[in-house]
């Protein structure tokens, strides 16, 4: 903690504390000019990076989905090519894997891969092209040298800490097909648009420079710089006190919030790589050398070595007396600790004082018992002083130390230390003290026309740096700067007022809390936008909130309409050797609009944050994602992860249930979870107005359900949903096998913004397609990209009908016309109809 009392003048606060956070913008512009500029941008593709001002806008016609290599039979074998993952692929050659196929407009916003074995290759076919629009391997795709896959929208496996990642928007007007070759894990996120939606391809040459400028300046507000009103103040926050930072009863938009608790320092990990020159001693080889010691005090030997994927061992003698089995431990099972590659490590041994009393020097002998042993330097330490140092690669020092050795060869490596070990014990004490206090300071935001708290979360979780210490984190929308400034750039529009408070639940008094609130006019029409909110999750081992076996974590479960735009996720697990990071095995499963079928099912927690192999390259934070912190405390392995969903929000119309597993099969109840999920939210206008099932004859009659002459209704065995509903059987045991068509009538509300058809069907055969007609007009092709050939599984899937086919109507005649393809039929067991009411 800082000992110096800060005297901060208001004028300096504006320009130094928070910086000129518009350095990448031109001079300020009016609301009218800003709206005109924003309106000229597309609502999709690259323009979304420049349209963050409009992030609160509600879009009920966009469907968010993800395809991935999740294990189709419910186990934890999530990679395609791994034994045990029943993929449901149609290819005779399982090495060629269909990843995504759609026949409607849309945009791919995120692709993530990691591989085992050879580097996979992708072929991407856009809008019915007979040859791939893009055909390249993952190394080339993320190199930044293959247009349009350019930096800073692509990340190799070092930059992402384990994944091959692309945030290059891929627009398709009519169809998309992606085929992968190899053995790999994958996630592909995309947005589906109605079939009549007019999308245009992105002009990468014209847009990438501005997009890159935004992403390359994390910590700077990415929104358009307007002449916002600024409130800069300093207040005292006493122990167990609540203070108000900002309050108004007007219709406004809070554009940014920044806070600095001057009492605390921010830590930045030292990721410096250094060159080490030393020797490698082969099995049965030995070295002998002399080291100075303190003849009256306790002495230690510190060896600089490198942590490899195997143990390096030797027997150690001091003046001929065997004192220890020398060991340089292996890195714990690739990916289970700081990073999944060699790095320097210091091994310290206590010398029995009886062997140094009355001596100025000792002779150290090491006889190698492992396949080899690599050493660089040796130091003698007594108390806090270094008594002697020996660079094993230095010939003159070897002579001075009377060095002899057998089976040795010189080595030279460039590695880093685990940066946690470079932080002194005294500094760690300060980090933990400030961590314990700051985690008890909560941000509270309430809107005056809304019930309950929109935000109530510790500032550590809300501002993106997480629960495990004040470490620099520069996310695009939230973060912590090196100077101590915590920032949020999420726009917060409201109709009737807002109150922003700090709640200090600790016994610590902050004499000076500097903060800045920016606000402007709210130019959104009422009902067209969502209120910014944050769902706070706290599940702590040993408390009433502790995780349970076989029960996933609920990140967000709410009714209403909106979209998720970001997550800060802190998670820790008991430190028990090889599998300390197994808590990261959990997959995300996201259920939208009350469906019993997931729209998202991932392949692992770190994969969701675009890492891989438990963040194999250590801490890496990019503007949109990353592992921002990985440290250890009280025998706990602790990870902080962040993801910003600016171009790929997760949309919902009536509800969302966002689950995250812990461990491979929800089997890490020892884990702690602390998370904030950022989202925009409003009251839903989606209403179930009709529905019928094929096992109800009266319902079929009432809806004029008719099958074509070659189609039939059959009785099925018990069928199950995937994911968290895998033990839930369907209530509908009759299914229509459509080989020509089915027709039926449904009731809707006359004043509407569109209608949603929900169908339940058998997942096998995969690749089912049909044309959808409303009152004789072709609306588009209905096709699900979800693939599972296991015959016991069923799925619920939605199709959006735009209002041009539905408005001012109370009854629709629907025709489903089977399309021949990879599947030889279209299946349906029920239809539910949801009307989106007009505002």
Automatic annotation (TrEMBL):
The keyword Signal is annotated on this UniProt entry: yes
Superkingdom as given in the UniProt entry: Bacteria
Pfam families associated with the record: DUF2961
InterPro entries, A to Z: DUF2961
PROSITE patterns found in the cross-reference section: PROKAR_LIPOPROTEIN
The keyword Signal belongs to this UniProt entry's keyword annotation: yes
Name recorded for this polypeptide: DUF2961 domain-containing protein
Native organism: Paracholeplasma vituli
